Amino acid sequence: MHERTVDQILGQSWQSYAQEKIAHTGEDYPGRDRGIELFGEPAPFEEVVAPFGAE
Predict the structure, then answer these.
(1) CA gap 12, 41 in Å, rounded
(2) pLDDT tens-digit map of 28-42
């Protein structure tokens, strides 16, 4: 049986999550215009997750 470490499990989980979020970056969603009106343009995803990145 192949055992995985916690780091491997979390790393894989993070990578999947980040790839999914990057794929949907910039998509329109309900309330986006109002959010931008109130808070300004959101920071790019790569900046928000720094220093972690997609991996």
Answers:
(1) 30
(2) 777 888 888 999 888
